[in-house]
């Protein structure tokens, strides 16, 4: 009897020791190591989540944006992928068609439906379903160096792209900078975001009646503007090799009067520990085209989703809802603005970045989408090559875009 009691006690003691460990869940999450929220921000958010949910641990991995898409697919194919992934607004069609992300339409609460800005939902939608929660709500803005503009006799930032060229010319004629404009025109998705901004300004289309339409109309005018700005020398010639972080570095070193970039650059470029132009950073919605548009904007938003191979979808959703919640986003609104409508009236969010918020209210309402198609990656790659060829003078804008339309994945 004694032996049985001892054995029973040992078993109970063992259960008491083992159960907590058995109940602990570990999530693997994949994030981006550039723009928007910093790696430190994401780690701090995650630490706060773990403090509230001690039975859930989260392993974080960060990769450059350029590796995010393929890393997600490769991990999924190996069967040992991630539970939570950050995904771009351009991927839901492909990811839905290839069963990469879980349809979470039924998990979306009424509070989420009512509180999130309507445009943010387009980040995670495809074919009437939602494949995650929007997390990064962003577009590109025109940043300008107030001091350089004042020295050139300019009293207000440009409201049209033509006026931008004129103001850049004025800066150059004053001998302030040889190349006043900087862009992210490397052969990567970054250049497509700049190109899309210009397409939106010119009233262009990427696809019409199921066929490529960017090779004519506003799409052609957009590339012509890029090539003219590059050939004139108003654009920094290194722009053809730059990504967004390069643009930020050049601008905050005082080497550009104008730059197109995401929200995150505003507070970093205004940080005296980071920037030589702190206090002189102006921001405005990207310009329009006379007779076509008042402003221009690209939808550069991103969402958090659950992979179809996750063995912990409920815990993954708990993590996603924490990361995208209004309190979390409001607390980290310096580099990426919240998806929640009422956040823009919260002094804790707006204080110290009133100009950024004012530009965002206009820019976010004008966001123009890149094509929603399962073949987007092929179209983007063809356009990236076409833009590079046109900038380098290897083909005219018309010929380069015509070739991209022929081999662009549609």
Summarize the structure.
By secondary structure, the protein is of the alpha+beta class. The chain has 18 helices and 14 strands.
Task: Describe what this molecule looks like in 3D.
- With 410 residues, this protein is of the alpha+beta class.
- The protein folds into 2 domains: 2-138 and 300-366, D-Maltodextrin-Binding Protein, domain 2, CATH 3.40.190.10; 141-298 and 375-406, D-Maltodextrin-Binding Protein, domain 2.
- The protein is built from 18 helices and 14 strands.
- It has helices spanning 2-23, 39-52, 65-78, 92-97, 110-115, 118-121, 146-151, 161-173, 189-201, 217-232, 244-252, 265-269, 313-323, 326-331, 347-350, 354-363, 376-391, 397-406, and strands spanning 25-32, 56-63, 84-88, 125-126, 129-130, 133-136, 141-145, 181-182, 207-208, 211-212, 258-261, 281-287, 295-296, 302-306.
- The strands form 4 sheets. Strands 2-1-3-14-6 form a 5-stranded mixed β-sheet. Strands 8-11-7-12-13 form a 5-stranded mixed β-sheet. A two-stranded antiparallel sheet has the order 4-5.
- Strand 12 (281-287) and strand 13 form a beta hairpin.
- Helix 9 (189-201) crosses helix 10 (217-232) and helix 17 (376-391) runs antiparallel to helix 18.
- The longest helix has 22 residues, at 2-23.
- The protein is globular.
- 47% of the residues are buried.
- It comes from Albidovulum litorale.
- Residues 1-23 form the signal peptide.
- It is found in: Periplasm.
- Belongs to the bacterial solute-binding protein 1 family.
- Pfam families: SBP_bac_1.
């Amino acid at each position: 009897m004694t032996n049985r009691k001892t054995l029973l006690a040992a078993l109970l003691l063992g259960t008491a020791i083992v159960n907590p460990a058995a109940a602990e869940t570990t999530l693997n999450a994949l994030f981006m190591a550039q723009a928007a929220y910093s790696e430190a921000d994401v780690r701090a958010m995650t630490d706060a989540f773990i403090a509230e949910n001690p039975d859930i641990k989260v392993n974080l991995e960060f990769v450059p944006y350029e590796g995010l898409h393929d890393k997600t697919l490769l991990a999924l194919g190996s069967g040992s992928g991630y539970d939570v992934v950050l995904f771009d607004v351009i991927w839901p069609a492909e990811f839905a068609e290839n069963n990469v992300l879980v349809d979470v339409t039924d998990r979306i609460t009424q509070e989420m439906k009512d509180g999130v800005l309507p445009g943010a939902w387009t980040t995670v939608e495809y074919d009437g379903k939602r494949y995650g929660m929007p997390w990064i709500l962003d577009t590109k803005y025109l940043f300008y160096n107030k001091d350089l503009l004042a020295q050139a006799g300019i009293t207000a930032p440009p409201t049209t792209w033509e006026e931008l060229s004129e103001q850049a010319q004025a800066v150059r004629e004053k001998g302030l900078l040889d190349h006043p404009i900087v862009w992210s025109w490397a052969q990567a998705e970054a250049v497509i975001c700049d190109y899309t901004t210009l397409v939106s300004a010119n009233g262009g289309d990427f696809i019409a009646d199921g066929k490529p339409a960017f090779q004519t109309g506003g799409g052609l005018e957009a590339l012509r503007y890029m090539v003219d700005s590059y050939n004139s020398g108003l654009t920094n010639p290194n722009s053809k090799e730059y990504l967004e972080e390069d643009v930020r570095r050049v601008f905050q070193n005082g080497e550009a009067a104008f730059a197109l970039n995401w929200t995150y650059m505003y507070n970093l470029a205004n940080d005296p520990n980071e920037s030589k132009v702190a206090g002189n950073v102006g921001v405005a919605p990207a310009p329009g085209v006379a007779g076509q548009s008042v402003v221009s904007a690209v939808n550069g938003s991103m969402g958090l989703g659950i992979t179809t191979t996750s063995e912990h979808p409920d815990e993954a959703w708990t993590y996603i809802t924490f990361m995208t919640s209004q309190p979390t986003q409001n607390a980290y609104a310096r580099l990426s603005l919240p998806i929640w409508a009422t956040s823009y009236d919260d002094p804790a969010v707006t204080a110290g970045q009133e100009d950024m918020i004012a530009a965002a209210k206009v820019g976010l309402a004008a966001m123009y989408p890149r094509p929603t198609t399962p073949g987007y990656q092929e179209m983007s790659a063809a356009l990236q090559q076409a833009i590079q060829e046109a900038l380098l003078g290897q083909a005219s804008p018309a010929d380069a875009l015509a070739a991209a339309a022929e081999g662009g994945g549609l």
